[in-house]
Amino acid sequence: MIEAIERYIKKNGFNGFEPQAVLFDMDGVLYDSMPNHAEAWAECMSLNNLNMMKEEAYLYEGMRGVETIQLLAKKQLGIDFTEEEAAKIYKQKSELYAAAGRAKMIDGVYALQESIARRGWKIGVVTGSGQATLLNRILQDFKGLVSPEILVNANDVQRGKPAPDPYIKGMQKADVQPWQTIVVENAPLGVRAAVAAQCFTVAINTGPLPNAALEQEGADMVLPSMDAFNKLLARTFPNDGDALSC
After folding, report:
1. How many C-beta atoms lie closer than 10 Å to residue 57's C-beta?
2. How far is CA 209 from CA 120, 147, 212, in A?
3. What is the pLDDT of residue 13?
4. Are 61 and 187 in contact (CB under 8 A)?
5. 154/22 Cα distance (integer angstroms)
6. Whether 187 contacts 28, CB under 8 Å
7. Which residues of the chain have pLDDT under 70?
8. 156 Cα distance to chain centroid
């Protein structure tokens, strides 16, 4: 991890790396929810004369739902959906997702957040979702860990991932700078957004995409599990988060 941090500092021209906040994506990072999302997207798109294979849902993961629908409508039908038109379809998709039941928590993520909290670092969530039920579940499941004040959702930004805006907003809410921020992502578009915001970006590959899909978006590290990241943190920051400078 030290080598990755050194490359990150050099790449961005920073003087050091002093983590004070960790920003988590939600789907595929906090919850194993992407299979349900993929099913819901495929069904909803079919009902609205659009096409999205289940596998494609992972490529659009992280983008605001409304923006995903507008993009597909333009590409496949040559139609410019308004925000209101796309929101109506996204509501349908959200209802299909809700009917699929609750997704389980990603293995190791709760222990990882406990470890982060012991270091005194802030914990936030940056998601492209705007569903109130999902956002409320985060605050219930990670009570005392995720700060309610550092919860960025689709309604907080005009441009969602892969634009850097959501992570810039997350840093503003956490009152930190990029060299003080770690992002935990699992999706190519989310990685692209975090890298564009100059955050140290850790990709945990919890889905079916190859590691290369995350590496080519600029992830500083690609790891197989939350436990692997937790162990690296323990070795790299054994004294509750000492700053690194190179």
Report:
1. 23
2. 33, 30, 8
3. 97
4. yes
5. 19
6. yes
7. 239-246
8. 15
